[in-house]
Amino acid sequence: MSMTPKFSFVLPAYNEEDSVVAMTERLLAVAEQIEGTVEIVWINDGSSDATGMRLDSLTQRYPAVRVFHFSRNFGHMAALCAGLECARASHAVITLDADGQHPPEMIPQMVRCWQEGADIVQCIREQASKSGVLKKVTSRGFYKVFNLLADTDIPEGAADFRLLDRQVVDALNTLPERVRFIRGLVHWVGFRQVSIPYSEKERLAGTTKYSLKHMFTFALNGITSFSVRPLRLSFVLSLFVILSIALYSGYVLFALAAGKDISPGWTSLVFIVLFLGAAQLLVIGIASEYLARLYIEQKRRPVYIVRKPDSRREDA
Ligand code: UDP
Ligand code: MG
Question: Are both 18 and 86 inside the same structural domain?
Fold first, then answer.
């Protein structure tokens, strides 16, 4: 290596006052084990406890630590995005949670994968720590639905614990969309991706910041920013109604031929109801198709992303 590589560790923190100091110290110890320089970028996501103050005092003590304070709580995704934008000069960015659930001791292994040519090193949770049954079930359900609707294959344990090469970070930073479902976007940008397993640790302190309400919003954001299939629902439903018209017509013709006694007015009433239902659903379906196009266009994602020749070999 002709030039020392520079790494940024990016950590979003929301009310993690009892974890930030210990995490920083563990990260500094890990930094000793890897070849290259390290900066630790903390994003204080509008914490209302002592997180901000403790992070500020860490910057006084350790020159490698940088802190950005949000003006209020903007959420985990916003904090991650800020971290990726603040880590400007580094050759690779490693994102991890502030609470110690993503063991920093994995980082040297992630860096080795990167040196061997991976652009994205995704850590996959092997078995969840003692997180509640509800969390496990909802998380599994979400990834099933997401992968089905969005035609992707994001594994359930693919947390926001990953290494991203400079090229990937640049690609993510240039995506203009506002709702940023990073787990999906990392998959979407492509590049050479490898996965390594890790076992999730217990939180160092505090409790989860993802309430059921937050998880629901997260799931909704994820699905709606990666799939327009729910918009096609009315179209599919209209096909069902049309099918039922066909079946019902068959039945009426059969009943008439068999000389069955059908009360007058009943048949035409059923036809009118089914016809109107089908017509409405079809029109909504067509409108939804245009809405889907508009939605896809307004996200203004690039049509393609070019992977440049490997920068690691020449300058890293
Ligand atoms: N987080 C954040 N803003 C929020 C919620 C969470 O920056 O609004 C951070 C949090 O401090 C932690 C990471 O995102 O570093 C993951 O959150 P948490 O550990 O609560 O989620 P869980 O691991 O329970 O899914
Ligand atoms: Mg956590």
Answer: yes
The ligand 1 atom at the shortest distance from the C-alpha of residue 43 is 7
Ligand 1 geometric centre to CA of 13 (Å): 7
Pocket test for ligand 1, best of 67, 99, 125 (most atoms within 8 A of CB): 99
Cα 23 to averaged position of ligand 1 atoms, centre (Å): 14
User: How far is Cα 41 from Cα 30, in angstroms, rounded to an integer?
Assistant: 15
Other Cβ atoms closer than 10 A to 158: 18
Choose the final residue of a domain: 207, 227, 247. Answer: 227
Pocket of ligand 1 (CB under 6 A): 12-14, 16, 45, 73, 75-76, 79, 97-99, 101, 208-210
Residues with CB under 5 A from ligand 2 (ion): 97, 99, 101
> In sequence order, which residues have a C-beta less than 8 Å from that of residue 176 and are 6 or more positions away?
299, 300, 301
- Predicted TM-score (pTM) of the model is 0.84
* Phi, psi of 310, deg, nearest 5: -60, 115
Asked whether residue 308 is domain-assigned, the answer is no
Residue 240's domain comprises 229-299
User: Tens digits of per-residue pLDDT, 140-190?
Assistant: 888 888 898 888 888 888 889 999 999 999 999 999 888 888 989 999 999
pLDDT tens-digit readout, 49-107: 999 999 999 999 999 999 999 999 999 999 999 999 999 889 999 999 999 999 999 99
Q: How far is the CA of 209 from the centre of ligand 2 (A)?
A: 8
Any idea what the Cα angle at residue 310 is, between residues 307 and 311, rounded to 5°? 110
